[in-house]
Amino acid sequence: MPNEFPSCFSKLFRISKDKIEKLKQRITITRARARRTPAPLANSTTQLVSAVNCRQRLGLGSKTGSVTYFGNVAQYAMTALSTSELQVVDVADETLPLCLIKVSSIISASQSVDQISSDSVAELCSLVNRTEDLKSIFPEWDLFSSRDLTVTSWNGLDIYNLDFGEALGKPKHIRPPYVEADGVGMIMPRAQWTRCDGKQESGVEVIVMLRRDDLAVMSEDDIWVNFIN
């Protein structure tokens, strides 16, 4: 644990449904971090950690027999790439599609049944049961060095259609509590919003948590601005 933590902040971005979220977050966040002086990511490796819903892999689905199962069944998948492989110059850079394809392939492989299966979930549960001091189990990725990115997705949760009755109705906006972190992306449930021209648009809302200086650079990044506009 470091003695001091940098000032961090979070910001909401809206992305239309034809844009790919995780890949762009990873590239643009890495670009923003790499531009800091002195550059913290020179000749280093960045890791993307994403939560995987293991219900289907355990045969749980929404119900187990006749009893509804409400428990959280998630495990983390981790990928690693050198920062040099993510240094796309600009929106017109011809290496951007190839970079996205490579990152997408690596992410898919990390989340495959070969990597995360019922056996791997059982092994993790066994490890926890056999460990006397649970504090000794710590994430393998770096939480504090402005190098890695953790992504969790609520995109598949149909929360906007939940009806809380006549008094409350359905949710208008869904947000997590405010949290300061360096390197977290939260993909909110699919939503609809009104654009400046009055037209309705559907897509996802992404909350990005970073160091304040990195988030300021990312908000002005050409590639990121092109994705969210």
From TrEMBL:
Gene3D superfamilies: Chloramphenicol acetyltransferase-like domain. It holds the Pfam family Transferase. It comes from the Eukaryota. This is Uncharacterized protein. It comes from Clonostachys chloroleuca. The lineage of its organism: Eukaryota, Fungi, Dikarya, Ascomycota, Pezizomycotina.
